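From the methods appendix. Each design record in this collection lists the tokenized structure first, followed by the designed amino acid sequence. Records were kept in a plain field format so they could be parsed without special tools. The example shown here is representative of the layout used throughout.

RECORD:
FOLD TOKENS (141 positions):
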């Protein structure tokens, strides 16, 4: 079984491009790539601000699913011109990722991101419901 998760804002971007912000399936949340977009879908101009906005947008979707970045187990980032932009982008990660253990990471350099310079997509483990926690803690014999 699977269902979609949507943030409270930014629906125009998803409707215009015909994709789901996130899909819950088999105990995981699969989040579409998040960019530094404003509510109307337009990009934030400054690269560092774009990265912060992408993380804010990601946090909004994670929260809509009852998760936080602490639940993220895998991240893939895409950046335009990584040789030039990596040092500008990387400090934001240490601000936003929190304490270890950190998720796995794959970084991909790309030549085009639909008008953006940075994108992050993640997979998060969904928190267990209280009944499921009880069943794991005290399995029946």
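DESIGN:
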């Amino acid at each position: 079984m699977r269902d979609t998760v949507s943030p409270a804002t930014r629906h125009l971007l998803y409707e215009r491009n015909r994709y789901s912000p996130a899909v819950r399936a088999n105990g995981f949340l699969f989040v579409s790539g998040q960019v530094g977009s404003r509510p109307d879908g337009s990009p934030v101009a400054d690269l560092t601000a774009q990265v912060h906005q992408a993380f804010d947008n990601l946090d909004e979707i994670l929260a809509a699913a009852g998760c936080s970045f602490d639940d993220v187990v895998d991240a893939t980032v895409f950046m335009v011109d990584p040789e030039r932009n990596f040092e500008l982008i990387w400090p934001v990660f240490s601000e936003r990722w929190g304490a270890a253990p950190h998720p796995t990471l794959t970084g991909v350099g790309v030549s085009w991101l639909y008008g953006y310079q940075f994108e992050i997509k993640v997979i998060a483990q969904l928190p267990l419901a209280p009944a499921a926690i009880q069943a794991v803690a005290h399995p029946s014999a």
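APPENDIX NOTE: Residues 131-136 have pLDDT under 50 and may be disordered.
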